[in-house]
């Protein structure tokens, strides 16, 4: 199992703490030390779509020009933005054997994971 994110993100910290408390083995991959590849990100987008993967609540999205925000309409346009600004990816992303299990952290969702 892999957990992708950035270590100082509060939501990532909650997910990591939950996984550790429940003795779930995982590998943590920091977006900044292990940049997300186009192939990996494309796979995620095919599975869950750009609407679930794009984080519109953070400062990175808020600082984008209105024209850029308006141009994000599909997986292709979101992919380009996410590759340029990985902080705009909703985190953490929990993945197992190439399948996205969860984005963000919700204790109920994590409790109901089937691996």
Structural features, described:
By secondary structure, this protein is α+β, with helices and mostly antiparallel strands. The chain has a single domain (2-111), classed as 3-Layer(aba) Sandwich (Glutaredoxin), CATH 3.40.30. Helices cover 45% and strands 15% of the residues. The protein contains seven helices and four strands; from the N terminus they run E-H-E-H-H-H-H-H-E-E-H. The longest helix is centred in the N-terminal third of the chain and has 12 residues, at 10-21.
For this entry, give a set of tags.
four-stranded mixed sheet, globular, alpha+beta, 115 residues, Glutaredoxin
| Main pleated sheet | 4 strands, mixed
E-strand count: 4
Total helical elements: 7
Low-confidence stretches: none
Number of domains: 1
Question: What is the CA–CA distance across the termini?
Answer: 9 Å
CATH superfamily: Glutaredoxin
**Helix and strand sequence:** EHEHHHHHEEH
CATH architectural group? 3-Layer(aba) Sandwich
Overall pLDDT confidence: 94
Compose a concise summary of this entry.
The chain has about 120 residues and is an alpha+beta fold.
SSE topology:
Elements lengths: L1 E4 L4 H12 L5 E4 L7 H11 L1 H4 L5 H4 L3 H6 L3 H10 L8 E4 L2 E5 L3 H5 L4
Parallel strand pairs: 1-2
Antiparallel strand pairs: 1-3, 3-4
Helix pairs in contact: 2-6
